[in-house]
Amino acid sequence: GSETALTAVSKARIRHLADEGDNRAKEVEKLISKQDKLISTLLVGNNLVNILASALTTSLFISLFGEVGVIIATLVMTSLVVVFAEILPKMIALQNSDRWSLKSSLLIKITVIILGPVAVLAQKISGRFVKNISSSEKLVDAHDEIRGQISIHHQEGEVKKGDRDMLGGILDLPEVNIEDVMVHRKNITAVNIDEIDENKITEILSSPYTRIPVWEKTIDNFIGLLHIKSLIKEALEKDNDLKNLNIRKVLSKPWFVPETTSLKEQLNAFLEKKLHMALVVDEYGSIMGLITLEDILEEIVGQIDDEHDVENEEVISEMPNSIDVDGGMSIRDLNRNYGWELPDNEATTLAGLIIHESQSIPRVNNAYIFYGFKFKILERKRNQITSIRVEKV
Fold it and tell me: What is the pTM of this model?
């Protein structure tokens, strides 16, 4: 039972107990750190006891029943060993591996001290029959192993869906690029510096955004970011004379980042530079969109709304067997919210996925079936799909 418990014990839970000062957990950590020696020692002990018990029983039954005692001893000892020395203790140990390991740690430590030298000798003898033993490569890395543990605990009901999504979002940060979560250029609220007048400043101050990109001459020529706090401060210094504000004075230098940057790298860059917004460019230097610190945090904790945010429902309506969604809804958000597995390697949005799969720009009422779903186009503005009905087939 101890052998089974120590091999099935959760290293993470034992580490947590050890960090909290549990001496038994510290002993378990020491034992499982040398698992090959531990297993060899326990196998020596198990076989020593089983063989000795069988030999004594056979000797006893032969003296009682003669030659037939061998058969009786075999049947009796097989039943006893299989049920009470193998199946029963191992079933109990599997159900209570952590507690069993902690309770038996001292006894197993003593056993390892006594039988350890014999186990080491047995290992060396066994090693002579096996040559060129090489450690195999790991099938999954540490991140995927943690992700698998989270999934198991979620299925067992120990981790809630929200916590699973949050932890998964953190693990996904190195694998998701800025282009997958950025605000597309067509949705950016930006202003031309030549058009900033008293009315435009009033409009900016009443907008829900604290930072607004400013461009000059062409939409790709962003010259800075206008922070509302800086604008208000400048206005107060000018006694609220909005006509004569020096907008260029309060602009902060724009920060451009490539669209292939991972969210983990960008998050670290935000923290290092102490900035909250960056403009995203492609390999040719053209503006593709913008990324904010909030966009990255939303990949971890989900949608973040405050009292100034403009309400923009991506899920238009939900019915028993289908949902109507905005064409620009992120595939990652759909998968996270509904537990789907739509691929997001070829397209970021649901509309993009339909265009990629259909190899065309669908018309209204067109319907497609792929990946186990039926997609019906409900609305379209020019070449943009604005509303889609999704039904699981």
Answer: 0.65
